[in-house]
Amino acid sequence: MHQNDTPAAPDLFTWEFAADPYPAYAWLREHSPVHRTTLPSGVEAWLVTRYADARQALADQRLSKNPVHHSERSAHGKGKTGIPGERSANLMTHLLNIDPPDHTRLRRLVSKAFTPRRVAEFAPRVQELTDRLIDGFAGQGEADLIHEFAFPLPIYAICDMLGVPPEDQDDFRDWAGMMIRHGGGPRGGVARSVKKMRGYLAELIHRKRNDPGEDLISGLIRASDHGEHLTENEAAAMAFILLFAGFETTVNLIGNGTYALLRNPDQRERLQNALAEGDGSLLATGVEELLRYDGPVELATWRFATESLTLGGQRIAEGDPVLVVLAAADRDPARFADPDTLDLARRDNQHLGYGHGIHYCLGAPLARLEGQTALATLLRRLPDLRLAADPDDLRWRGGLIMRGLRTLPVEFTPEA
Ligand code: HEM
After folding, report:
1. Ligand 1 pocket, Cβ-based, cut-off 6 angstroms
2. CATH of the structural domain 3-411, one choice from 3.40.50.150, 1.10.630.10, 1.10.287.130, 3.40.50.2300
3. Does this complex have an ipTM over 0.90?
4. Residue 28: is it exposed, middle or buried by C-beta count within 10 angstroms (0-12/13-18/19+)?
5. pTM for this model (two decimals)
């Protein structure tokens, strides 16, 4: 193609891009589907944006999750690239940073404790937490749904499930707040929060070993597979990843999801009508569609080529980092009809919002439960909920992996 026929590659990782990355992703899918770029941290990586390539990359065992395979690691020296896992080795030896056979063993053990059935049993508690949080602002007529609702709900839910006593859960809320606010920014406060969380979890695990209960941490300690158990350190890393992987993601599902509904009044009305008639099926397909349309995880977590390989016709060298852009793949017109349209009843919706392959989201059942409960309860209790800000004034958090709003101001008729 003549050079002038192709517009210049869009700027990535700017504020405008953070507000609406989808036009840039459409350009990449079309013109440079496996695209070499320099990330804000200075690390060079490949961005994979087409659905078929993304799905293939997520399941390709030659793409390792272990940062030891990163070629720049030796060039920059340990810990200089900003890639997670190069610091705090202990807590970072978790599912998202390891490959088989270690991954297989740990995932099997945690799956014994964190089962879909256990999650289903937790449904009434999630409903209770949701109502309690809405009680906090329903009489006011206005709220910031991120701070007052989307942010606290997942942290209290997972703390409850893990067995963190209620009186300690606000500490987690503070630590998590620090992590979410500074996720892509200054490291000092985040490092301190991670350290406090680690200390707390280590102590809690120790306590539960002597005095087990029905909670998830006790389940993790008890879980055994062919006589194998998690060590205390592995259990701490596992509890940490459950908190960490399940927290900001769910905040963004509730935040992005509510925002998308408010921006698409016909879809929101359709959902409200279905819920009023007691029909939950649109809620189930709708939450999946919200994950596809504007999902919480913009880019899947790091992968590194353990050998040179070809992906989407592009040669990738051994040691190169590969980032699969889930948000781009899930808007690929080659896979989804009218990909930029929100259709809560969409069928054939095999989106990649929860990933794919052996690292497929372990917490998907809990995320679905929280997302469905949060959205249905909000719409039921505050039926005339509306946006109280100009969409152009809303700020998106500029982290690399996640996509989510900093604030979501809303107004509504106060509950009597
Ligand atoms: C993995 C998305 C909620 C726990 C993943 C991955 C994605 C994802 C895309 C794969 C990452 C990769 O392959 O690089 C989401 C979304 C959520 C959500 C969109 C909310 C809407 C949760 C929750 C938990 C959780 C609530 C647990 C409480 C995990 C864990 C992994 C994971 C442990 C690692 C699995 C492995 O490596 O084997 N998630 N997640 N997630 N997620 Fe989630």
Report:
1. 58, 95-96, 107, 158, 241-242, 245-246, 249-250, 253, 291, 295-297, 300-301, 353-355, 359, 361-363, 366-367
2. 1.10.630.10
3. yes
4. buried
5. 0.93
